[in-house]
């Protein structure tokens, strides 16, 4: 069997799974998700053993520490996977919900029903926790999922998928509802994204190169974000202790994620008071700092940056600092360099906070909170399937509602078109 036949066969398997899953009740889907969570918890030792094989291979290949961090599973992260499945099981089943039901002049009732998208293909790198998150969310939304993880996580992903499929079968559902591409060739991705008519939606998660390649070659709709160039603006009216804690968390808590801060903007009115202590705290955490000319004049020990640095998604302990003179300048900077992912203002001034909220055009805009909070679990969606910076269909963290679409439904009593 050649690669195209293999991939097409997997897509047909997922399509069969989608048809069966679409008929499953919310009660059945919830029971399956709880069973999946139990299976992950009860087999954590086996998952960690397979993950250790992937981590060892990644170190031999010289992958970056940020990539290895994304790849690594431990008890805490496995518990988070299981908890995510459980949390999704507790959400309201969106499938079949009818909204906006209105009576027309001819007495017919017109509304919208929420329905599954069908077959969703997730293409992702490094993070094996995405395997459980994506499967759980797609299942609850009534979709089959095709999972194409990166070669660096092949053993971890296969171990997790095996448990999920066993649970589906035990509950009488088609195992194709969770379909895994265990061929690690990159060419498999190119075959998948051409399967128009079998796959309904592609969601790539990973580096900018992967996402651009998928978007440029796909014949199927793609939901994506290219990168996360996220900002925190420390306003002149900020509580500086709060600002320091938010900025530190946004950069240091887990720097290899798409919602970590890459540029810190500081109002010139409080820069001399705020920056020395903030910079010292960053230095103690081994953060490499780059500064604009105003920043380096104030703190000569900071290396100068170039304009290109403002576009960088570092995914590491590296940070740009820019001093701005006004709120307008901060908003203009974000409009110029942001990837429209996540941006925060720290301020006690309500009017300035609301201006920032209205004028910054990102998928998530926060007031007095870390950028790291832009996450489906933190926003109450359960586990997320990704964070979209697109403006059509879904924007921001994508939970189960974002994995459904609407169809019009009509209740009539003999109406005809005149």
Walk me through the structure.
The chain is α/β, with parallel strands linked by helices. Helices cover 43% and strands 19% of the residues. It has a 7-stranded parallel sheet, with helices on both faces. Helix 12 links the parallel strand 9 and strand 10.
In DSSP terms (H or I, runs of 4 or more residues), the helix count works out at 14
Give the structural class: alpha/beta
Distance from N terminus to C terminus (CA atoms, Å) equals 56 Å
Shape: globular
| Average pLDDT score | 95
- Got a strand count? 16
Order of helices and strands: HHHHHEEEHEHEHEHEHEHEHEEHEHEEEE
**Residues in helix, %:** 40-55%
List low-pLDDT spans. Answer: none
Main β sheet profile: 7 strands, parallel
Beta-strand level of the residues, as a percent range?
15-25%
Radius of gyration: 23 Å
- Strands side by side in the biggest sheet: 10-9-11-8-7-12-13
Catalytic activity: L-glutamate 5-semialdehyde + phosphate + NADP(+) = L-glutamyl 5-phosphate + NADPH + H(+)
Family: Belongs to the gamma-glutamyl phosphate reductase family.
Domain Aldehyde dehydrogenase: 13-289
Organism: Candidatus Magnetobacterium casense
Please name the defining characteristics of this protein.
four-stranded parallel sheet, seven-stranded parallel sheet, 418 residues, glutamate-5-semialdehyde dehydrogenase activity, EC 1.2.1.41, cytoplasm
Can you summarize this structure?
With 418 residues, the protein is α/β, with parallel strands linked by helices. It has helices at residues 3-22, 26-42, 44-61, 65-71, 75-89, 129-140, 154-170, 187-192, 208-217, 240-252, 268-284, 293-298, 327-337, 350-359, and strands spanning 98-103, 109-116, 119-124, 144-148, 178-180, 201-205, 230-234, 261-267, 288-291, 303-304, 318-324, 342-346, 364-367, 387-388, 396-397, 404-411. It is built from 14 helices and 16 strands.
